[in-house]
Specification:
Methyltransferase domain-containing protein, Methyltransf_11, 32% helix, alpha/beta, binds S-adenosylmethionine, methyltransferase, single chain, Rossmann fold, 7 helices, seven-stranded mixed β-sheet, transferase
């Protein structure tokens, strides 16, 4: 996993660089394959890669979305390095742009953002998805026991109230380390739904004991948004939302 842009430059040999960017092409290829299998033809012209890092995923996204791609990253070092790597139709920015795009991607990012910050960011991000657009989103969901600390970093002292663990003392991540947060999937689903995404696919991922979900979703069209105003029915005559052939 890529952590520090300085390490990226220092440690990169041409072979490592090729392997690194090949892993991005493979990850995006996999996501696009899942999207096509579940949602049919996929020809986005515009995209946002949220948490783009140095552009590992942004480059293959830009090969597909050839009109305009925005790579968003909070870290200036990442943005600087990304600008060296991406093609001309990619704009690297610090904040989610005020645009509507056909595809929003964010992989291996939200798990590093505390949910208190990540949930409002996700809500903002989803508003940038155009009707009919697709989402490839990765969020952490739960952990195996051995992954509750990351190499000694994380929860030093916890309390257990019979229901949940609460961190009492936490070692802040040192340079080059990132925390791994889990999201409430009910909350993520509610966010997807309120942003017009009523059908999505959850793909389980195991990131060394950090288990995550990859939700692949097509945004509702204007027609489907009309349906939701019928109180959950798919058409005025129908009471069965799941079985009506009009859906
Ligand atoms: C592990 S890297 C993954 C980069 C890229 N998605 C990939 O798979 O190669 C996580 C990236 O998310 C960025 N990031 C973390 N918090 C962010 C935030 N609040 N807004 C935008 N980017 C953020 C970090 O700066 C870092 O570049």
């Amino acid at each position: 996993m890529l952590i520090d842009p300085d390490h990226f430059r220092e440690r990169m040999t041409p072979e490592r660089r090729e392997r690194f960017f090949a892993s991005g092409r493979a990850d995006i290829g996999w996501q696009v394959d899942l999207l096509r299998r579940h949602y049919g033809p996929f020809h986005p012209r515009t995209a946002i890669d949220f948490g783009c890092g140095v552009g590992r995923l942004t480059c293959p996204i830009a090969d597909i979305a050839t009109e305009r791609v925005y790579g968003v990253d909070v870290a200036s070092g990442m943005r600087e390095e990304a600008r060296r790597n991406v093609p001309a139709h990619v704009e690297i920015v610090a904040e989610i742009p005020d645009v509507q795009v056909d595809w929003i991607n964010s992989l291996i990012v939200f798990q590093h953002i505390h949910p208190a910050n990540g949930v409002p960011l996700l809500a903002r991000l989803l508003q940038a998805l155009a009707p009919g657009g697709a989402l490839t989103l990765h969020v952490g969901a739960f952990k195996a026991r051995g992954a509750m600390t990351m190499g000694g970093v994380g929860m030093d002292f916890v309390s257990w109230d019979g229901d949940g663990l609460r961190t009492l003392i936490e070692t802040p991540p040192g340079s080059g380390m990132m925390m791994m947060y889990d999201y409430d999937l009910n909350q993520v689903m509610a966010l997807l739904y309120t942003n017009g995404i009523e059908r999505f696919t959850v793909q389980h991922l195991d990131h060394g004991g950090h288990h995550g979900a990859c939700s692949l979703a097509g945004r509702r069209t204007a027609e489907a948004e009309g349906r939701s105003r019928l109180g959950g029915r798919c058409c005025a005559a129908c009471l069965a939302t799941l079985t009506c052939p009009a859906r």
